[in-house]
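Worked example 3 (structure in, sequence out).
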């Protein structure tokens, strides 16, 4: 794209390659976080992502750079492959938030382990449960199983 006359201007956003480097980092992610990159480099951030140093830096930043209260760090690797907060529970939380209007953290935690009191996700589900004719114990049970 860059080598074609006016290629960047006319076709800049049409590059079909959206990830790069050893950790397959999103180029968009790297460009948004380029201001934090501590190394000098020649060329674009896209080019730097394809280097070992840039690919590892932005890959690790993506893998570890967001708040997630996982019981085991293993879950971060699943989210890395599919995108931040990509667990099925986070998708459920996003839908629940949209339907109920309750702002939820898209962290995938439907019920905190060992929690007696309901958290924000459970409270939002209860709000919807009233409209659907579901009882509180049913909702809690289903959230614990998810």
């Amino acid at each position: 794209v860059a080598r074609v006359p006016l290629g960047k201007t006319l076709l800049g956003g049409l590059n079909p390659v959206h990830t790069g480097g050893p950790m397959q980092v999103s180029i968009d992610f790297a460009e948004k976080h380029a201001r934090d990159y501590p190394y000098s480099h020649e060329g674009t951030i896209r080019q730097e992502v394809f280097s070992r140093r840039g690919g590892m830096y932005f890959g690790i930043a993506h893998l570890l750079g967001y708040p997630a209260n996982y019981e085991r760090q293993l879950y971060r690797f699943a989210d890395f492959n599919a995108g931040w907060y990509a667990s099925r529970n986070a998708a459920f939380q996003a839908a629940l938030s949209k339907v109920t209007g309750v702002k939820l953290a898209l962290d995938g935690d439907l019920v905190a382990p060992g929690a007696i009191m309901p958290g924000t996700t459970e409270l939002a589900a209860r709000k919807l449960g009233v409209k659907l004719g579901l009882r509180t114990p049913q909702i809690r049970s289903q959230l614990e199983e998810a």
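Notes: The chain has a mean pLDDT of 83. The longest helix spans residues 52-64.
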